[in-house]
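so my prof wants the structure for this chain in the tokens format not the other one, which i didnt know existed until like an hour ago. anyway here's the sequence
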Amino acid sequence: MWVRILLSVIFLLVAAQAEVIDRVAVTLDNQAITQSEILLEIRLTAFLNGNSLDFSSESRKKAAERLIEQKLVRKEMQPAQYLEAGPAELESMLKEARSQRFHDAEEYRTALENYGITEEDLKAHLLLQVTFLHFIDLRFRPGIHVTDDEIRKYFNQELPELQKKAGKDTTITLNDLRDKLEENLTGQHIDKQVDEWLAQARKRTRIEFHPEAFQ
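here's what i got, hopefully its the right format
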């Protein structure tokens, strides 16, 4: 009898500990974002940006907002069967992430340990990022049309800074930069449409924050 009681107490303690670790922080309709997902998002973002770990309430709320957007995009992607990034593209992103901040493999592995993440965590994060970029490009780019007037206005607006970077002896013309300017403007239009789409998606979704997870 005492053994059964002891085992019951141990089970309750373990369950209570698991509840703290995986406490639901945000609900989106019938989906959930847990506290552990938020902490991992903070670790991965800090690792990629080279920032110090910040688990403050404000940092956790910002991470939760990023995860909410990810959930909304995933929901939109599911019916359309958007393709994920291939192994070669994923490996290229991983290689770029390593080379940008680390001199060798040992420094890279040490950083993973210091941030409390694994390479598998990083790969999954990068895969999600590039898949989302593919989705956004396919979903929003076809509807974007940048006019010649927009390009000309953007060129005149950016010319002083462009000329400063190029130097006085370099002549900058609109035709030389047309493709780059058009791509920049296209990116701005896409960003605006994505923001508007996310705002509408949030309105259609019941999103509830659980304050105790952010204290």
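also thought this was worth mentioning. The first strand starts at residue 24 and ends at 28.
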